[in-house]
Structures are given as C-alpha cells and as structure tokens.
Design goal:
Layout: E1 7-15, E2 18-27, E3 32-38, H1 47-58, E4 61-71, H2 73-76, H3 82-98, H4 105-113, H5 128-172, H6 175-195, H7 204-217, H8 221-238, H9 245-265, H10 269-289
Parallel strand pairs: 3-4
Antiparallel strand pairs: 1-2, 2-4
Helix pairs in contact: 1-5, 5-8, 5-10, 8-9, 9-10
C-alpha cells in the first residue's frame, strides 16, 4: 500500500442549530508536524483528543487543521431580557410622568435597547451531542483526507514501479558490452607488446595473470545480482500493508550504491551511458519517495 503524504479532507455536521465544518490538509514532512490547529475557543478543551486522533490516523506529514462554526439565525440572534426591559420602561415612564414630559414610544424603545443588560447573555455551554458531533466530524474529515492520500498514492506507486522496471531493463543492456571490455584490454596489451619489438620477451603465464586481474577488477556480476535483488525488494515493499516510505528510501540508497559501483567498474563508454540513465531514474524515484508515507 502506497499512501501519499499530500492530501485534503473536509467534513461538516449540523447539531443544535450549528453547522460545524472541519478541514484537514497535509503536506510531506520527515515526521508528524501538526503546525496549525485552529478552532473556536469553546472547543479548546478537546484539543488533546483531536491531536491524538490526527497522530494515530495521519502518522506522518505537516498537518493544518481547522474547525469553523456557523450558527443559524434562530440560534445566533440575541434575546431580549423582558424583566430588565420592563424595569427600564417603568422607571422611564415614572420619570417622564413626574416631569410632565411627552413620551414617544419608538424613540423610547430604541433608547432602552441600548441600555446595559437588556439582552440575555448567551452561555457558551457545549452539550454532549455537540461534542460527539464534533469528534465524528473530525473522524470523517480524516477519513476523507486519507482517501485522497490513497488515490494520490496509487498514482505515485505506478510511477515508482515504472521507474524501477526501467532500471531493471537498463541493467539488462549492460551484458552485451561486458565481453567487449576484456577483448579491448587484451588487444591493448598485445598492441603495446608488439610496439616494444622482437626484443621484448613475454611471459605467457604472467600475461594470463594480468588478464585475470583485469577480468576480476571489472567484473560486475555481483553488482548486477544485488541491484536486481534490490529492485525486486523495492517492488515487494510497495505492496506491504503498512506505510513503508522510509524503508523504500533505504532500499533506494542501496540501489544507488550498486549503480555507482557499476559505474566505477564500467571501463566502457556505452556502459557509462547506461549507468547515467539508471542514476537519472533513481533520482526521480528519490524525489517521489519524499512524498510517500
């Protein structure tokens, strides 16, 4: 299973006349980094529980988390404190009557509505239903985020498979040039001996030992076998049930070591070209792995 670290999830619920909206965004990171966790102060006491949910489900990545609340008109509109209103009205009526002042209803109402304590204070109390709805909304947003990351992961996985297979195909192209190297070295030594003229004495056994030395020095069979095994291990690891981004990174490093050794032993222009192409594919793999969970 390959899961990307990049994704976005959103969910919303309605409860007690409120619409709770939760958004979760993640980017690639070497470890879990919940850098932004923004929510109304009234929900702050649930922050630790929410962080635990994020860490258990997201595992790794840079996470931004947002909660917003929208209230409908009936729940958000303030209510008038009738007893306070009546008290203000009675006092004003008594004063205007005593002073024989005219009392106009509409301006008086507007004046009373601007006086202290005329509106009921809305207590910020959260019911159990609202707590549970908030946490369910968080779960849904995280699930949507991971669905997004799984979809991105499938695309990345196929690209990784293609690039690893490309390295394997390039490795097969090395074989035809291996035999040429020994023949080239043998001809070069023979030509140098011929240039020395008839006076040069040649120890046949020594000559064969030199050829064997170069054959062993330039032999790349071990590197080819190990690189082939690393490529197979990489593909097998992609199919693991658990996230394996770090493990794949280590395998890619081992692949790089074998490719580098192959290049150092190449001693052949065409093999060097193949090695360069393999390195290019491996660098693309490493770039992709930076975003794999």
């Amino acid at each position: 299973m390959t899961r990307s670290m990049t994704g976005f999830g959103k969910a919303e619920v309605m409860v007690n006349g409120k619409k709770i909206v939760v958004e979760v965004k993640s980017l690639n990171s070497k470890q879990l980094d919940i850098s932004a966790l923004k929510m109304p102060m009234i929900y702050k006491e649930k922050e630790l529980e929410i962080r635990n949910k994020l860490s258990q489900s997201i595992v790794r990545g840079k996470v931004d988390f947002y909660v917003s609340v929208e209230k409908d008109a009936s729940s958000s509109a303030p209510t008038i404190n009738r007893e306070v209103f009546k008290s203000y009205l009675e006092q004003i009526s008594s004063i205007t009557s005593e002073l024989k002042m005219p009392m106009q209803s509409e301006p008086l109402v507007q004046t009373i509505l601007r006086l202290p304590d005329i509106f009921n204070a809305q207590a910020d109390e959260i019911s159990d239903d609202e707590w549970n709805s908030l946490l369910n909304c968080v779960d849904m947003a995280i699930a949507n985020l991971n669905t997004f990351r799984d979809q991105e992961g499938k695309i990345t996985e196929q690209d990784l498979v293609n690039k690893v297979n490309s390295i394997g195909e390039l490795l097969q192209q090395v074989s035809p040039f291996e035999g040429e190297r020994i023949e080239t070295i043998k001809n070069r030594i023979t030509e140098n001996l011929e240039k020395m003229g008839n006076d040069a004495s040649v120890d046949k056994n020594r000559f064969e030992q030199e050829l064997i030395y170069y054959m062993e020095k330039f032999d790349v069979n071990e590197e080819k076998v190990r690189l082939t095994n690393h490529c197979k291990y990489f593909i097998d690891t992609l199919n693991d049930d658990e996230p394996a981004g770090r493990k794949l990174g280590f395998i890619a490093q081992e692949m790089g070591r074998e490719i580098n050794t192959l290049g150092s032993k190449a001693n052949h222009a065409e093999i060097q070209k193949i090695v360069v192409r393999m390195k290019d594919e491996l660098e693309k793999i490493k770039e992709q792995l930076l975003n794999v969970l």
